[in-house]
Amino acid sequence: MKRLSLLVTLSLFLAVAAADPEAAPSAIRELGQINGQALACGQMAVAGQAKALMIRHAPKTRRHGGIFEEETNTAFLAQGKDTDRCPPPEDFAIRLEELAKRLPAVLPGSPPAAER
Fold first, then answer.
1. Would 74 be classed as within a structural domain?
2. What CA–CA distance (Å, rounded) separates 57 from 104?
């Protein structure tokens, strides 16, 4: 049963990657951007939600983790300490909700550690 689950997950990931090879990296970039901006704006709950979505949906690879970290750093530095330009929490919530709806299709997740 575990092998079947692994094969289904892998098949879904490969099908999505073949359909649009930039879909997964793009979604991870967007998560990183939200995470970095939220951190710079002191919105720790939002940053936690972004990171949780990353952990829940993105395959656990060095490439995906690197994209997330790079975008987090870039967004954090771009926001800087200019909290006057920080979006209100509602804007973060809307962006995260929209992204959370798209993620299962573009980032089907990686199998649990026991199945690898």
1. yes
2. 7
